[in-house]
Model the fold of this input.
Amino acid sequence: MGYVLYSISFTCLILATGLYFTRARWIQYFPAFPLPEYIYSRLPTTFAEDIESGFTSNDFDLSPNVESGDSRAGLDQKGKREVRKIMRNRKVGFDEARRIYTERRFAKNNISPDGTPRDPKFVSFS
Done:
């Protein structure tokens, strides 16, 4: 019985690997499967799209970047994804979501919410 189970598992693994590596040849024959907006939403790639998506506020104004013709790609993709998730899950605005995201990044890097390091060996002269 163990031999049969092993054979079936190994055959499925080989078949799945083969399908994965040849997906460019056969994927075009399947109809496109549109995902609902709540499952997948494309992140903006320019400052203008960032503004349209709500990633701007009075405290974090992106309009000067658009007006000056800034050709950069816009805000950080990973950061936008996290901020959007916070905005959607906690039902907060952009500024609050950005604050929560920044505090999480601070905590991950051992920095207190006010911006001072939590390192016990840290010495500050003021």
